[in-house]
Amino acid sequence: MSIRRSKTKVLVDGGDPQETVRVKGLIGFVDGQTTNPTLIARNPEVRQLISSGHKFSTKEELDEYKKIVQAISPLVGDAGVSIEVFADFDTTAEQMLAQSRDMFAWIPNAYVKYPCTHEGLRAAQMSVREGIRVNMTLCFSQEQAAAVYASTKGSTDPVYVSPFLGRLDDRGEDGMDLVRNIKKMYEAGDGHVHVLAASVRTLNHLLGAFALQAELATAPSKVWEEWAAGSVHCQKRILCTKGQTSSATS
Length: 250
Ligand code: E4P
Hints:
Blueprint: E1 9-13, H1 17-27, E2 32-34, H2 37-41, H3 44-51, H4 58-72, E3 80-84, H5 93-104, E4 110-115, H6 118-130, E5 134-139, H7 142-151, E6 159-163, H8 165-170, H9 175-186, E7 193-197, H10 203-211, E8 216-219, H11 221-241
Parallel strand pairs: 1-2, 1-8, 2-3, 3-4, 4-5, 5-6, 6-7, 7-8
Bound molecules: erythose-4-phosphate (E4P).
């Protein structure tokens, strides 16, 4: 049974193509995927190499990231695959841009992830001018979302901003409030920035993102599995109530 689409696009947060295949099998479709270096390090093949004592050079890390992203790319729809640049406090916008030019060429449906920092925003501004699609990650405040809007104005492709629900909740704030406030703030805008609910840890986060009509939501496979199980149960109940045969529901 394929689950009815909500307005919110479905993205898998992970670094294992097999997981994406599994979620796709459960839901019937996957619109996109978000990755980051931590998720890539959890990929089963990568873990096996690490546990056998293999030490990755920087080039090998990137090659592995590219290989995994290339396997995921054809599995997902038009929300693309987000690939994160390696950045710390000292990384300049120019250094991020150099990485992103390379990463953007890995697959036809890439979004490059930059942090919502001063340098990340500068990198995003330069990127959209070159036609590189961007996902602004690690968004913890409405001010950061406003800065994303201003620095990417004029982008011909949708720009993603990723408020981090789970991490805000972890520090005693309400991540869902941030999604609500950003959506409200963008109502007056031109619609070029799409809200991607991220750091989703629970089914409630997901349902909240749907209710607020976030354009996209990314969640680990276990949360999608939970959602799919609940949705199939609901749809079967609705179809059964309408008097359809059980064979029509499976
Ligand atoms: C998505 O783009 C993020 O990488 C992801 O949701 C991070 O969330 P977490 O590290 O808080 O789990």
